[in-house]
């Protein structure tokens, strides 16, 4: 495989028409969109203020099984025990419904806590 090619997975194969492939990047974007409205997560942004979809989300696909690692920054005052299961459920449901792939794991890594100061700087 050429290094310029994206990592893709077969999600459907028809003998008469060929196969359907999806890139890991697209699976990460689906996961990102699924958790976009979860309360308690600080959003990721690019330097230009536009959302960088899929940032902080790692995808591994083996056969038709998907393994997801998502790194989040939790907003101050929210409980990990309340936010993490919601993230896991939403990602699992979105990938399974849209792609008909099995989600075996959704691992949530809390990599930071957004303080009041960081929140006000992000709004600028």
Give the overall average pLDDT.
83
Helix content: 25-40%
Q: Provide the β-strand percentage band.
A: 25-35%
Distance between the first and last residues' Cα: 43 Å
Q: How many strands, what sense, and barrel or not for the largest sheet?
A: 3 strands, mixed
Task: Tell me the name of the CATH homologous superfamily.
Answer: Cation efflux protein, cytoplasmic domain
| Rg over alpha carbons | 16 Å
Sum up the overall morphology in one term.
elongated
- Spans of at least 5 consecutive residues whose pLDDT stays below 50 are 45-50
At the first level of CATH, the class is Alpha Beta
Helical run tally? 3
Walk me through what this model shows.
The chain has 124 residues and is an alpha+beta fold. It has one domain (23-122): 2-Layer Sandwich (Alpha-Beta Plaits). Helix content is 31%, strand content 35%. The chain is built from three helices and five strands, in the order ββαββαβα. Strands 3-4-5 form a three-stranded mixed beta sheet. A two-stranded antiparallel ribbon has the order 1-2. Helix 1 packs across helix 2 (80-99). The radius of gyration is 16 Å and the shape is elongated. The N and C termini lie far apart (43 Å).
């Amino acid at each position: 495989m050429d290094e310029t090619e994206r990592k893709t997975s077969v999600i459907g194969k028809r003998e008469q028409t060929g196969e359907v492939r999806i890139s890991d990047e697209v699976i990460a974007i689906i996961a990102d969109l699924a958790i976009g409205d979860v309360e308690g997560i600080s959003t990721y942004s690019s330097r230009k203020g536009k959302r960088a979809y899929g940032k902080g989300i790692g995808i591994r696909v083996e056969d038709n099984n998907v393994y997801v690692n998502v790194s989040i920054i939790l907003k101050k005052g929210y409980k990990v025990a309340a936010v993490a299961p919601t993230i896991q459920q939403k990602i699992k449901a979105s990938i399974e419904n849209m792609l008909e792939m099995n989600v075996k794991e959704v691992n949530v890594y809390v990599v930071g806590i957004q303080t009041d100061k960081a929140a006000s700087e992000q709004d600028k």
